[in-house]
Amino acid sequence: KEEDFSGQKLRTLPSSLLDKGKDLVKVDLQRNRLRQVNGIAHLWNLVELNLSRNELVEFPLEIKDLGNLVKLYMNQNSIKIIPEEIFPSLKKLQFLKINTNRLTKLPSDLNRCQSLVYLNLSNNSLKDLQPLVGLRRLKELYVENNQLVELPRALFRASALAVLKVNGNALPEEVCAGGLKDLQSFYSMLDDSSCSVCTLKTMFLGATMAGKSTLCRSLREGEPVPVAEADRTVGIEICEVDQDGVRFLYWDFAGQEEYYITHHVFITPQAFVILAVDLSSFREKVGFWINNIQLKVPNSVVLLVGTHVDQCEVEGEMMKKKNDIQEKVQQMLLDRRESLQQQRKNLEELEDVSLFSEQMREIQRLEEYVLDLIPIDCTKSEDIVWLQNHIKDLVSDKETFPFMEQTLPQCYQQVESTIHELVSDGDVPRHIMNHDDLLEYLQNKHSELDHEKMRLILQYLHRIGIIMWYMEIPDLKDMVFIKPSFLISLFKLQAIVRHDLVSVLGSISSRELKSENALQVHRSRWINDFKSRATLSNVAIRILVRKELQQSGIDDQEMIEEIVGTKKKTGNLLTLVQHFDVCLPTKQNAPLNPEAQEFSPNRKWEASSPVVYDLEGGCLFPSGLTNNNQVQDQWGQDNLEDINVQVYFSPEIPHGFFHLVIRICSLYSTYWIGQNQCLFSCGSKRVLLREHLTEDGDQFIEIRGKNSDLQKMWDVIKVVMMRLARLVQQWRGLYQFVHSPCKQRGCSEYFEWRDWQDWLDQSGSEKFNVSEEKMTCRNGHTRRTELLFPVS
Ligand SMILES: Nc1nc2c(ncn2[C@@H]2O[C@H](COP(=O)(O)OP(=O)(O)OP(=O)(O)O)[C@@H](O)[C@H]2O)c(=O)[nH]1
User: Fold this and answer.
1) Per the database record, which ranges form the Roc domain (predicted)?
2) Of 57, 252, 339, 405, whose CB count within 10 A is highest?
3) Whose CA is nearest to atom 3 of ligand 1?
């Protein structure tokens, strides 16, 4: 009664299948090359049909005759249109997957398929979901990554709907992420009254001393504002400028290398980037910046602004430099486009192209937008005014900035004004407010907004940077930074993210040491630990932060304690930087206590003198590590029988990416970290992550496991790859390939992983698509498959 014809390169339905006629209830035809399924109507008793990952362009009309169908898989084809009059006949159909196709429109009678409970329409190009209104039993609906600008209100009134996923559409991000309830709240607010707003987050990026702060402040004032060299940006500075109906939120990023690792947190999609380039200097790495931006936010608009024109001494130097940079940028973009095209072509040439439809979509989505370089002299009024006008013209172009205008409920603005009033009234001296207090205050003024609605508004205000509220961090969710500049200045205060840390540590006075019961010897150890192991004791962090807070005039002890933390409780600030992966918590290993009382069941066990375990933890700053010695010592030699998976990144591994990868290791209790390697133990298994970077070559991260129990090792590798994949989602311009290298010494061949994304997707029903017992590489070396692939 069941037939499995999957993965057989079929182009038509075989007669051996069709002959079975009414006897069949379930057929699996996934991973073939079917463009039509003529004859399928013979199988009129079918209850489940899987046609996913084929080459269907048209939805087969004959499916209409399969009136007993309960489950239908049509995902990962190239279907463009579904004709009318199919779904009304499928009276029993409960489950339909038609995600990852090319649908632009749904048949208007889809809502007559009244048994539907599960419907997946993600990854298409749908603009309208009206045909879904009236599906009374629908419980789960997936419409992620389409082109929806609006959702029919009646959809939410369907009482059965319990899951609705709409990420990746032109709807406010936080609303989509929140799911059904939030969508309901949002639309009910929108129904009350709406307005359209133009907000543009503008980020100033570029090398240190390039003139970012000068540009930012001068554009804000409309005239040159000199910035003293001593007044370098630390962390990020934010300000707001209203110009001709457009609200610019300027984010001025610090250019020093120490801060790059915090950038990824604040660089958000749909932004305008002003990339400052010092034309009088020869150290500019424009390519580095553009690459970073492209990898993280491929759809942002980048304007290159060349500064210091007045300091280009030799005549013609400026033009030469400008042309040179522009040429290089053009070449870089061209290379990138070509490499994307090549990747696409490679995929298209593969035998079973349907397997790669998800990847193809990803590649097509990537595009870049870099505008010509504008040379200016930041000390000249007319240049600043000219740039201001130029930006004004640019942003008024809807093609360049399609995302700028959004329709939002009117109450969003009202709540924002209330918060501004609150801050300017000076009612709250602290810039930080307890979440419940803030909510109470706001609800007093806006009684029509319930908790849920207010939360959505606060989330929106957080996204655009008006307030900062990290509701996803348990330790911080009760706290709202109603003045984000304060948070940034905390980062600035954050004694620990700074370029001159060693000298700051050296300047800690005896009195300051005493406040934490520390001695001079401790101070020396902190300096040594930081220099040699990139680790800083929590005690030192507390001293530095307290000092900075006091220096900036904050004397509220309760608040200082909350931010700084105590021996028992981590301060807010540390929680924050750890959450942002700027540093990792480390435990200083306490030596085993030989006096410790042995544990035996049923006998009361008492801890030995707690003093032995009272060594305080610290923070590790991966960016400060300079070698891999410790990791190497622990790992020993590579072994030919190690499990070895290579995850390639195209076009390259982003700057600072490996520091985030390290985080994966730190989730296991025993781990060692080096400059570009990290190692962890999970039970008896050891797994090494190693970054391979060459300027011109392929860049990849190697995951290597010492071969103990194979199945268990693959399980651990799967966890690592899942975390890696989740991390990569933050770099929308990044593309991954996975290989297992041939295990023969000296052989450069490899085995390509195909279905690894499905393998990682725990909800995916498909298994890993390798069935042979042994695999042979192109050079003829044979190995057992389970050493190369996680065969289930
Ligand atoms: N003569 C001249 N000086 C400029 C120009 N642009 C910036 N400067 C000066 O260059 C120095 C560095 O400028 P900043 O704006 O602080 O540079 P930044 O990129 O913000 O630097 P970081 O904060 O370290 O990242 C300051 O002293 C500016 O006054 C320019 O076009 N001409």
Assistant:
1) 193-398
2) 252
3) 308
CATH T-level assignment (fold) for domain 410-490: Arc Repressor Mutant, subunit A (1.10.10)
CA of 302 to the centre of ligand 1 (A): 19
List the residue whose alpha carbon is closest to atom 24 of ligand 1.
208
Residues 267 and 290: their CA atoms lie apart, in Å, by 13
Q: How far is the CA of 111 from the centre of ligand 1 (A)?
A: 61
Report helix, strand or coil for 719.
helix
Residue 735 to residues 86, 422, 454, 535, 710: CA-CA distances in angstroms?
38, 45, 37, 33, 28
Correct CATH for 626-788 of 3.40.50.2300, 3.30.310.200, 3.90.1150.10, 3.40.190.150: 3.30.310.200
d(CA 627, CA 619): 18
- Distance, CA 210 to ligand 1 centroid (Å)? 6
771: left (phi over 0), alpha (psi -120 to 50) or beta: alpha
Name the residue of 216, 221, 227 whose CB sits within 8 Å of the most ligand 1 atoms, as the mutation to test its pocket. Answer: 227
Which numbered atom of ligand 1 lies nearest the CA of 276?
19
Superfamily of chain region 2-192: Ribonuclease Inhibitor (3.80.10.10)
**Could you tell me the pLDDT band of residue 113, with boundaries at 50, 70 and 90?**
very high
Residue 171, pLDDT above cutoff 70: yes
pLDDT tens digits, one per residue of 603-639: 665 554 433 333 467 888 777 788 888 889 889 999 8
Q: For 407-420, what is the mean pLDDT?
A: 92
Atom of ligand 1 nearest to the CA of 378: 31
| Ligand 1 atom at shortest distance from the alpha carbon of 216 | 15
Q: What are phi and psi of 27, to 5 degrees?
A: -130, 130
This model of the complex carries an ipTM of 0.96
- Please tell us whether the domain made up of 195-403 is placed in CATH 3.20.20.70: no
Least confident of 262-266, 726-730, 747-751: 262-266
pLDDT tens profile 117-131 = 999 999 898 989 999
If one counts every other C-beta atom within 10 angstroms of the C-beta of residue 178, the result is: 19
